[in-house]
Design brief:
With 202 residues, this protein is of the alpha/beta class. The chain has a 6-stranded mixed sheet, covered by helices on one side. Strand 5 and strand 6 form a beta hairpin. The radius of gyration is 18 Å and the shape is globular. The relative contact order is 0.14.
Length: 202
């Protein structure tokens, strides 16, 4: 922990003073343009990969960058999406998956999380993506991880559109949805093109 305590001291003494006006402006309100939904994987830093500043992204993170379909059961993702879209009036929502995702590996081999009941239930929100790839190839192997990752992003975009606040603003074209996949090793990001039905490098 000492590394992080030292980091706090460095932030307060070196970084904060250089951005004092920015933080003072953010102290009482926020107006992000983007709801950024990504994996809780420690290798993903949304602000770093988008070169964005504090206050520009409203960030939601969870294992597998999952958006459960809308239901009457309230959860953290549902509440955050509703708030970002209805109150903060974000104009864009990005669902960003990534390479070598442990959640996707577990979704491909659900028996591997049999002793993690909450993880197993959570990853069931990815099952259709895994089964789509399996159906296409007639089998599922490790080399299909990238395909499952991309299919999961598309699936979660579909789930996102079931949320009333999102569907309403999609209908009036006040909101745009984006699906990204980030390659950790190369830094490349590909975006889903719905018309071409494929991911294209940004």
């Amino acid at each position: 922990m000492q590394k992080f305590i030292d980091g706090i001291k460095k932030f307060q003494s070196e970084i904060y003073p250089n951005h004092k006006e920015r933080f003072e402006a953010l102290a009482n309100s926020q107006a992000p343009d983007v709801l950024f939904i990504t994996c809780s994987d420690s290798r993903i830093d949304p602000n770093l990969i988008t070169s964005s500043d504090p206050g520009e992204l409203f960030i939601c993170r969870n294992a597998g960058n999952i958006v459960p379909p809308h239901s009457n059961e309230t959860g953290g993702m549902t509440a955050s999406i509703e708030y970002a879209v209805s109150v903060l009036n974000v104009e864009h929502v990005v669902i960003c998956g990534h390479s070598n995702c442990g959640a996707m590996k577990a979704a491909m081999q659900p028996e591997s999380v049999n002793k993690l009941p909450h993880v197993k239930v959570w990853l069931d929100h990815c099952r259709a993506a895994k089964e789509a790839v399996e159906h296409e190839h007639g089998h599922l192997h490790d080399e299909h991880l990238d395909e499952v990752t991309k299919q999961n992003i598309i699936l979660q975009l579909n789930h996102l559109a079931t949320h009333p606040a999102v569907f309403k603003k999609l209908h009036t074209k006040e909101l745009k949805l984006h699906g990204w996949v980030y390659d950790i090793e190369t830094g490349r990001i590909e975006a889903y093109d719905a018309q071409q039905k494929r991911f294209i490098e940004i």
